[in-house]
Amino acid sequence: MNVMQTATPAVSLSEKGLHVILADGQQAYFNYYWLRDNCPTSFDPATRERVFDIFHLDQPPRAETAAFDGDALMVRWQGEDHVTRMPVATLALYADGNRRPDPADLPRQAWYADHYPRMARFSQPELLADRGKVSAWIEAMIVDGVALVADMPDSDAGLTETAQLIGQVRPTFWGSYFDVRTHIKPTNLAYTAKALELHTDTPAEEVAPGVQFLHCRANSVEGGGNLFADGVAVANDFRAIDPEGFRLLSSIDIPFYCEHDGYDMRARQRVIELDDKNEVSGLTISQHLADMFDLPQGLLDDYYPAFCRFGKMLQDPRYVMNFRIKPGECITFDNHRIVHGRAAYSATSGERYLRGCYTDRAEMRSTYRALVGEGRFKT
Ligand SMILES: [Fe+2]
């Protein structure tokens, strides 16, 4: 009797996809649509965009034959004069259905009141000259959510060129830049000499800007100390001591507003923001811009105590970093994570002028990936 010794086939075809055994013995399944749509020939080398149109295939894609050839899987398609040469490295990356690794997905590190001496610091001329310093700056912004840029030029252009190292200046409904100093007819609490409670900016925008820059141009007043706290640190601790309050603040939207004669901005936001791993990624909070809560009054029996307990925690000296920003410094921070405020000051005691603008978090991460990552198309 003859016994045929056959090795396990490395590729077997089925109706909707194929099974393969990769080099490390890992068994994996790939859907035919996915294999056909992501054929390396689908992507234009100049634009790096997909130019293959899977919507216009006459039949669902199906392999006629498939076999490994060196470092690629060769797939000949039924009813099409086309062969896909899919690199084994690509198959290995997508075999388990996990998200593509993201170099900008760095773990957040919570910080407390004593963070000031350890806060990441950069010199603006060095940032302009060295892209490596820019990636270190963005890394600090992703991990800590805050960094200080010193040696800023005493000019409007200095702020613009600094912000543009991360992304485009992102306007809000107030425009591209804002001036924090005492205004004669203030439209915002920031434009007075009064104390400004810890908050995130422009919660009444549908999507509040992600990264804030505050460039100090003058600060000779009495008072006006800067207050910053890490929303992630506070919300993580709140989660531990009050899980039900945390659930309410991270699942119920509350209304925010910003209203004057010519505008009436409104948006609903969750105070505690969670990411797709269910970890705290940030906050949206502002007492001076919180609208009258239009939630069922019975729900407020539970919501308000949780909201106040959390707000009180935010102000706990354990979390609040106190310092005084100096002319020539620009504090840069994640507006969805770091809460900021200031003590009251005496408007007649000197001059206090901070000029600010925003960029977006997604664009900051894009810049970071471009600086440090391999990318799918980099050669
Ligand atoms: Fe603010």
TrEMBL record:
<keyword id="KW-0479">Metal-binding</keyword>
<dbReference type="InterPro" id="IPR050411">
    <property type="entry name" value="AlphaKG_dependent_hydroxylases"/>
</dbReference>
<comment type="similarity">
    <text>Belongs to the gamma-BBH/TMLD family.</text>
</comment>
<dbReference type="InterPro" id="IPR038492">
    <property type="entry name" value="GBBH-like_N_sf"/>
</dbReference>
<dbReference type="GO" id="GO:0046872">
    <property type="term" value="F:metal ion binding"/>
</dbReference>
<dbReference type="InterPro" id="IPR042098">
    <property type="entry name" value="TauD-like_sf"/>
</dbReference>
<keyword id="KW-0223">Dioxygenase</keyword>
<dbReference type="GO" id="GO:0016706">
    <property type="term" value="F:2-oxoglutarate-dependent dioxygenase activity"/>
</dbReference>
<dbReference type="GO" id="GO:0045329">
    <property type="term" value="P:carnitine biosynthetic process"/>
</dbReference>
<keyword id="KW-0560">Oxidoreductase</keyword>
<feature type="domain" description="TauD/TfdA-like">
    <location>
        <begin position="121"/>
        <end position="358"/>
    </location>
</feature>
<protein>
    <submittedName>
        <fullName>Gamma-butyrobetaine,2-oxoglutarate dioxygenase</fullName>
    </submittedName>
</protein>
<dbReference type="InterPro" id="IPR003819">
    <property type="entry name" value="TauD/TfdA-like"/>
</dbReference>
<keyword id="KW-0408">Iron</keyword>
<dbReference type="Pfam" id="PF02668">
    <property type="entry name" value="TauD"/>
</dbReference>
